[in-house]
């Protein structure tokens, strides 16, 4: 089984740093997934070429999907195929982890109607965006609900560690403190 790392323009590289390290320490195979085959440029300018796309990857081979935040997630608001892909991964009973602004993608996929979550948006921003189920919002650094993990961006170290524990990986969490 593999962990899919979804890459899209302006993804936050630092939010993935500890997660990628934990996955590497835990010998977890990683597949980087793009919306298409084009290279992706992160918010700090890191250029990445995904190894697969949301159309090519076999969701049955994923035990986890990681969704990084980005500096303007609104550019993904009409990516219907992306939301369908996220729903497919959830239906396969895989772990889904979203940090910072990325729970927006879970909301657009309809997943936050049944899961508690946190997100890096204020109440006013969530209201303005209009896709979040406020009844399930928890104002906490990280929220785990079943196989779904959400976190605020500043807690990327805890996010990576919690994800490693959810995947039952063998890694040294003290490495990041």
Write structural notes for this entry.
- With 177 residues, the chain is an alpha/beta fold.
- It has one domain: 3-Layer(aba) Sandwich (Rossmann fold).
- It is built from five helices and nine strands.
- The strands form two sheets. The chain has a seven-stranded mixed β-sheet with strand order 5-2-1-6-7-9-8, sandwiched between helices.
- Helix 1 (13-25) packs parallel to helix 5 (156-166).
- This is DJ-1/PfpI domain-containing protein.
- Pfam families: DJ-1_PfpI (PF01965).
- Residues 4-160 form the DJ-1/PfpI domain.
- InterPro entries: Class_I_gatase-like, DJ-1/PfpI, Prot/Nucl_acid_deglycase.
Layout: helices, strands, pairs:
Elements: E1 2-7, H1 13-25, E2 29-34, E3 40-41, E4 47-48, E5 52-53, E6 62-67, H2 80-91, E7 95-99, H3 103-108, H4 123-129, E8 142-145, E9 148-151, H5 156-166
Parallel strand pairs: 1-2, 1-6, 2-5, 6-7, 7-9
Antiparallel strand pairs: 3-4, 8-9
Helix pairs in contact: 1-5
